[in-house]
Amino acid sequence: MSTHEEQDVAGRRFDVADAAPLLLDARGVVTLWTQGAQSLLEYTAAEVVGTRVTGLLSAEDAARVPELAERCRRDGGWAGLLTARRKDGQPIRVMVRITPAMEPGGAPHWLVLVSDVAGERGWDMSRGVLEQMVTDSAVGMAIVDTDLRCVWSNEALERFGGGSPAERLGRRLAEIQPGIDSADIETQMRRVLETGLPVVGYEHVGHVRSAPHRETAHMMSFTRLDDDRGHPMGVYYTVVDITDRHRARQRLALLDRAGEQIGRTLDIVRTAQELADVAVQDFADFVSVDLLDSVLRGAEPEPPSEMDRVPLRRAGHQSVNPGVPEAVVKIGAVATYLAGSPPIRSLTTGRPWHAARLDPLAKEWATDIPGGRMATFLELGVHSVMIVPIRARGVTMGVTTFFRRHRQEPFDEDDLSLAEDLVSRAAVCVDNARRYTREREAALVLQRSLLPRRLPEQDAVEVAACYRPADELTGLGGDWYDIIPLSAARVALVVGEVPGHGIDAAAAMGRLRTAVHTLAALDLPPEEVLAHLDDLVARMAREEGVRPEDPEAAGIQAVGSGCVYVVYDPVKGQCTMAAAGHPAPAVVLPDGAVSFVDLPQGPPLGAGGPPFEAVELTLAEGSTLALHTDGLLVHGDGDGGDRDDGGIVAADRDRLRRALEQRAATLDMSCRSVVDALVPARPYDDVALLMARTRLLGADQVADWDLPADPAVVAEARKETTRQLGEWGLDELAFTAELVVSELVTNAIRHAEGPVRLRLIRDRAALICEVSDGSATAPHLRHPRTTDEGGRGLLLVSQFAERWGTRFVPGGKIIWAEQSTTGLPD
Fold first, then answer.
1. Residues 787-818 pLDDT 10s
2. CB 182 within 8 A of CB 173
3. Residue 295 and residue 578: Cα distance in Å, rounded?
4. If I label 68, which of 55, 111, 152, 644 is the partner at 20 to 30 A Cα–Cα?
């Protein structure tokens, strides 16, 4: 054994209770032999006392006795391992401790304590190896007693601070390392003392004395130490620094969390806020995200020059402190950063920047702060910063700034690398949101240009409409509504929905709405309007090679669109409607009772199927029709339930019923309250609601006459027209109205068959003349030659009337003409 090894052995504790004592004189002669020694080596006292101790040792160790005697005199004792020989000649490994002793007479003696270690685990290993395991190990080791006070530790623990092994003796962990959670660690120790079960792999994070400003992580294991009777003597524990592994795990966890929580929407501001929220958790104390204004508008960002005082808009920020007191700019506000400041350098160069320690008296980089607030970094309480540009696809859109305030550990290069990874992931989401915003805004502009800017004035119904676009996840859809004035003061109410989202859906909606206007001008019944629409959609799909079941059909040719078409006649109070794959309207009666029209559902447009059917019902004045798209009730949540042909669950209708039963001061307020009650601020699908409260034209607004098929009756028709216009105060229209009535009645008598009927209707803006007959042949406007004796009737009518046309009814047709009453005295 080397000198160094033996010195270490000498410094170790020796279990006196297990040792066999014997006494040697200064020459190494045995002067006292005890019963313990006899039990250990099997020699009797008579056989040993008076002989030299070398006779009890192996030849190798006997040769070392002079050297060991010198060391005992020099060092005051010795301890180490020797090989003794039993009486039967068998070698035995023993632990020996030699200490000086004096006889009463003053003669020097040596007290030798001998302990058998042959049966102990590991003692057959080289003593030097065992010592190296304790003294040279990189693993910190310590033993505490049952009071949790340190009784031994190795040198490896010194690198964590807290002093040398000698300085640790008798101290509790809170005294040795005040920066860690000593209470929790001691709880683990007490549990081990109580149960005897070891604790392995316990991880602790805190600040040790050797690195007070840096958060470190350690893995600890605890084992109870028992005496020979099984009584707890203390706890042996080991400490391993796992800070690098802990930080790598934190980094991966942060990036995983970023992948889950950033970019859940296609809203730029929400994405920026998600970046700030994620980064504040376990990484920074305050984070701000500033974007160029052009990015928030969805436009391509314009790179600023180095000399610009660049205005950036705060899109998101977060702090570990409630209320984000560090922020000098509110969300949505603009802060202009000084030219040459670190944020502008990162913005213009596209490279990150960081400062481990900020100058506490330096002013922050923003200027033109709303309210004039300026502050130094000391006042803001921040000491370390990183600025990372938000770049995607080679374009810089803004900067993200990370501050540390409460954490004393400054940002380092590893933190900067992590921040770059974090921001780069968020940058892709921000750019996707920017591109989507641009497309969404374009689609909204297109859709708004296609929807009615102002509902037309008419006397048939009081109308209110509400449209709410879908949220950014599903994208803008193709829902639409329309109110189309028809002849005879009637009105068409239309609500439709094109499948798909985005600009394609908006464009398809515009095409479909234009087709509905064209068909409405023909004064066709609702079921025929839908039939023509169905043919039109199917034909366009065939021309483009699109099949109804093709997923690309949605939003391209309006295949699968839904539509409900309603015609209301205020003279009769009658309502006729038909539907193509669309929810039936609800009816709110004047007393507030709500019902749903039992409307046969035709197939979606372009899908093919049975012919469309119409229903007719009479509505009391003051009844309200509620036409809506399925987004009002179906939110894409997969709630299950039996749905009708319009895709509506009975429970959804109950919700709509309750919302419609709520009274409001105006129809417009009622319309908005229904949408607010049933639809979130960011709905899953587009929502359109059109509400129409019916009116009836009074008897004093309608006049009609049955006329015999006699040319002489034309003069009587003119006379009655003049008289009626006088009662209505429309004398200024008498001349042209007489001419229109004369020509229409003359044509009906001359060219048609069956009974002839004349009807005059006055609404708020027009005088309507109608002549009906039993013929199904429509007249045609032509331009007669100067030599022709006839054919000028409809030409004259077209010149004097603002609108005119023909509509077919069961048993014949009606030719009508409208003259404006706008500007005439009441």
1. 444 445 677 788 888 888 888 888 888 999 99
2. yes
3. 46
4. 152
